[in-house]
């Protein structure tokens, strides 16, 4: 019985699976957290780009849309 318990403790056959599950969960968590943290700060900055492009002569929407 003691050998069975020691063999079970020394066994590492499922360790790679556990590592992959932990790494995948971390990647998914980061992929969800980044947009949540970035978007509220990005929208005010992005809304200020169009007036700056319109004010710059020869740049911005006039080149893209032919205005």
Residue share in helices? over 70%
The major β-sheet equals: none
Q: On the 0-100 scale, what is the average pLDDT? A: 80
* Strand content bin: under 5%
Termini separation (Å)? 84 Å
Radius of gyration: 27 Å
Uncertain segments: none
Give me the count of strands: 0
Order of helices and strands: HHHH
Tally of helical runs: 4
Q: Return the structural class.
A: mainly alpha
C-alpha geometry: rod-shaped
Topology record:
Layout: H1 2-10, H2 15-47, H3 49-55, H4 61-65
3D structure, described in words:
Helices cover 81% and strands 0% of the residues. The protein is built from four helices and no strands.
What keywords describe this structure?
67 residues; mainly alpha
Give a brief description:
This protein is an all-alpha fold and 67 residues long. It has 4 helices and no strands.
